[in-house]
Design brief:
Elements lengths: L1 E11 L2 E13 L5 E5 L6 H8 L7 E6 L2 E3 L5 H10 E4 L12 H11 L4 H14 L16 H13 L5 E5 L7 H18 L2 E5 L3 H7 L2 E6 L2 E7 H5 L2 H6 L6 H13 L10 H10 L4
Parallel strand pairs: 3-8, 3-9, 6-7, 7-8
Antiparallel strand pairs: 1-2, 1-4, 4-5, 9-10
Helix pairs in contact: 3-4, 3-5, 4-5
Bound molecules: adenosine-5'-diphosphate (ADP) and magnesium ion.
Length: 283
């Protein structure tokens, strides 16, 4: 997936927000896991929307596989990218609408031409992928817990069998366990199915634990796109963008300060830190 010189506005009736994306350049490798970070209003959600064709470029070009979106007519390309790029909105459970979980999940596949049988088969498959059991399919979504509803909303997107999954703050509003469960599931789809994944998050623990790459957005522009470890190895970058540092790295910095020993690499998780401390003879 490639974005070249992409600029976009919102026009909602008389209200217009100019250049919510400004000259965005970005290449996302197939099979990568990217965390998009940045302040509120930086354009993170807009970046995901332009990847899914919900927002269209005023200038520039979005290329996803063989589909190209430009400021002109895009009907065929849009149909292709909406199937290819699965978008999970922030608080996606607010968009559940059907009488049963099964109907909700089957909606997307049916819309893209699957038969009833195929759609039901997909529903049975994805309900397991999100860690639920098939008996929930006949229930009303409205009787379920918040975490279950979120999983079902995500299952509905997985049922369209996307190549790229983009999720806008998938852990927002869940308790710590619910959040970790969702993020771990996302990481396992990425690993096991090679699903190209982008998430918007504010949590640097998520970034450190699950993502390979970081995109920092500021004022509608991608200001940095690099490997997670490179970003957290760079003090100037951390300071410039006022990044929160993962817990493990905070510990590492304190240990290095107190002992005067420099560990050979930047540790992003407690596991990495433990190993490095043992190797250095400090534990
Ligand atoms: N539907 C909309 N209509 C008009 N302006 C919008 C809309 N959604 C977002 N914006 C504006 O676009 C800018 C970027 O928003 P957004 O992409 O949601 O940022 P983020 O997700 O980083 O918080 C903000 O200035 C916001 O006010
Ligand atoms: Mg947002």
């Amino acid at each position: 997936m490639k974005l070249e010189h992409v600029t976009a506005d919102y026009q909602l009736g008389p209200i217009r927000s100019f250049n919510v994306l400004q000259d965005v350049e970005m290449k996302v490798e197939s099979g990568s896991f990217t965390a998009v970070i940045g302040k509120t209003g930086a354009g993170k959600s807009s970046l995901l929307k332009i990847m899914n064709g919900l927002l269209l470029p005023k200038q520039g070009k979005v290329t996803i596989g063989d589909a190209i979106i430009t400021p002109g007519k895009n009907k065929k390309a849009l149909k292709s990218i909406r199937k290819r790029v699965g978008m999970v909105f922030q608080f996606p459970e607010s968009q559940l609408f059907a009488e049963t979980v099964e109907q909700d999940i089957c909606f997307g596949p049916l819309n893209f031409g699957a038969s009833k049988e195929e759609a039901k088969e997909l529903a049975r498959k994805v309900i397991k992928q999100v860690g639920l059991t098939a008996d929930i399919l006949s229930k009303s979504p409205f009787t379920l817990s918040g975490g279950q509803k979120r999983r079902i909303a995500i299952a509905g997107i997985l049922a369209m069998e996307p190549d790229i999954l983009v999720l806008d703050e998938p852990g927002a509003g869940l308790d710590p366990k619910g959040k970790l469960d969702i993020l771990s599931s996302i990481a396992s789809w990425h690993k096991e199915q090679g699903l190209t994944t982008l998430i918007v998050t504010h949590d640097m623990e998520d970034v450190a634990q699950f993502a390979n790459n970081i995109v920092i957005m500021d004022k509608g522009t991608v200001v940095l796109h690099d490997a997670v470890r490179n970003v957290f190895s760079n003090k100037a970058i951390i300071d410039k963008w006022q990044l929160d540092v993962p817990e493990a790295l905070k510990f590492q910095m304190k240990i290095e300060e107190k002992t005067g020993v420099k560990l050979p690499k930047v540790c992003l998780t407690i596991e990495e830190l433990t190993e490095s401390l043992i190797e250095a003879g400090l534990a």
